[in-house]
Amino acid sequence: MKGFLAIPSAVFRRIGGYDEVLEGYAAGGDTDLADRLKLVGIARHWLDASMIESVVEHDNADRTRHHLDPIATSYCAGLLYRSAKLALLRIVNRVQLPLATRRNLYDAAKTAARKLGAPSGTVSMMVNVNTNPILMPRQLGYEKGTQ
After folding, report:
1. In sequence order, what are the residues at sequence separation of 6 or more whose Cβ sits closer than 8 angstroms to the Cβ of residue 11?
2. Residues 105, 110, 113, 114: is their CA dihedral positive or negative?
3. DSSP class of residue 138?
4. pLDDT tens digit sequence for 44-100
5. What is the mean pLDDT of the segment spanning 126-139?
6. Which of 80, 71, 57, 92 is nearest to 24 (CA)?
7. How far apart are CA 36 and CA 95, in angstroms?
8. Which residues contact 102 (CB under 8 A, 6 or more apart)?
9. What are the phi and psi torsion angles at 146 (to 5°)?
10. Under DSSP, is residue 13 helix (H, G, I), strand (E, B) or coil?
11. With contact defined as beta carbons under 8 Å apart, do 102 and 19 qualify?
């Protein structure tokens, strides 16, 4: 029952709800939400699958009919984005980043994911966390104190 989440509405609003920048099938909107719930200390409890009466059968073609990118691309972009976002959230000790930051981060993840077919078979992206100079202590021999 992955992807089926029952959340108190106050908690849902507090963590910012679903992240609207995620696009495509398998980008991980449910996983992102679950990760942020964990950040605020909300424990996961599994629901019994017997509560489902019936399932609408559909294949990947039906799932992705109205999506721009194939599953592999949206999955990879979502994975890169969510990993970077979670690391940043832990650094800034928050449960949500500003929308502009998330959009920039997701655009970088999509660009990297669309290179998935590259000959190396690997995908990576770089996130610039801070553009300020690193202050180096004079005690280590750095005359000006910056590098």
Report:
1. 37, 40, 42
2. negative
3. G
4. 888 888 888 888 888 888 888 888 888 889 999 999 999 999 999 998 999 999 999
5. 70
6. 71
7. 6
8. 19, 21, 85
9. -135, 160
10. helix
11. yes
